[in-house]
Amino acid sequence: MNWTDERVELLKKLWAEGLSASQIATQLGGVSRNAVIGKVHRLKLSGRGRNSASTPRPKKTATNTGPRPAARTQRPVTTTVGATALQARFDAEPDVQARARPQDNVVIPIPLKLKLVELGERTCKWPIGDPMHDDFAFCGVDVGECGPYCSYHSRLAYQPANERRKAR
Predict the structure, then answer these.
(1) How far is residue 161's CA from residue 22's CA, in Å, rounded to a whole number?
(2) pLDDT tens digit string along 85-112?
(3) Domains in the chain: how many in total?
């Protein structure tokens, strides 16, 4: 679809009247809401929803002469231009401190360093090293009935959900 001069003028008129991009797209026909939004940005038409002198507002008339409610404090609103999400500032020291959970009877096993073809149903499948190097292996310690890892590696792999939330 080509933007003819007549369609652009109609777009500007409808935009100034305060119609939404969907409504403008419907009136223009043959154009999507996103195409209207893109054209508005390329034409650099003024944004809406802001208090400006060019937008007349009806004056409010007082209907209640009783005491006024307490005024709410206005929060400062910052205006942004473009994508500023990457410009967010963070505290150097986060408020949440990572807490180590107490470990009872922690025994760090000596890995057997088994190759993939040497693993069985009851051997720990915790990877050790870089898979791209020749010395890559798996822990290989007996797992018992607790899953794919020995008790030590299970504690590393499976952490309770509440502790993961605290660490964030």
Answers:
(1) 43
(2) 555 555 555 555 555 556 666 678 888 8
(3) 2
